[in-house]
Amino acid sequence: MSTRTELPPPAPLPVLPTGGDGPMGPHGSGCFGCGPEHPSGLHLAFVRTGDVIRATVHLGKRFQGAPGLAHGGIVSTILDDLSGAVPVALGQRAVTAKLEVDFTAPVLLGRDLVAEAWLETFEGRKIRIVSRLLDDGRVLAVGRALFLTVPREHFAGPAASASASSIAP
């Protein structure tokens, strides 16, 4: 567990021809975190404001871990999926190589939460991203992720085609 308390400021994100500030599309329609067609997904909707990407989420009882609290895996999923929007804002295809989550306070169910992510550094293939989950401005969890850029072919092939075309309920 990391003992760092101060988070680095956002590094600048470029304004691409495909978009700057405003809503961003999902990673894919069937993505558990942000896909609108995933029947049991989180349905996160990403919005870019300057160099920060945000999403709101309301976690109901189906995401419970300990009584009345969100499961840590769901909290990690939110931070990972939101972090994945940063490479998109950079115009890059990338995958999670490492995710470290510091759980700083209990995440109560039934609350409107805000998740934020921003670029820390982008060097070579390595994209370092910082994220956090907040409840009314209070930090509940902090994520530090390493994403690696990959070629388009990384997402091609039989396994990718099968998972994109059918979502199990």
UniProtKB/TrEMBL annotation:
Catalyzed chemical reaction(s): tetradecanoyl-CoA + H2O = tetradecanoate + CoA + H(+); hexadecanoyl-CoA + H2O = hexadecanoate + CoA + H(+); decanoyl-CoA + H2O = decanoate + CoA + H(+); octanoyl-CoA + H2O = octanoate + CoA + H(+)
Main localization, broad class: membrane
Enzyme Commission number(s) of this protein: 3.1.2.2
Keywords: Apoptosis, Cell membrane, Cell projection, Cytoplasm, Fatty acid metabolism, Hydrolase, Lipid metabolism, Membrane, Mitochondrion, Mitochondrion inner membrane, Transit peptide
Stated name of the protein: Acyl-coenzyme A thioesterase THEM4
Gene Ontology process terms (BP): apoptotic process; fatty acid metabolic process
Stated family: Belongs to the THEM4/THEM5 thioesterase family.
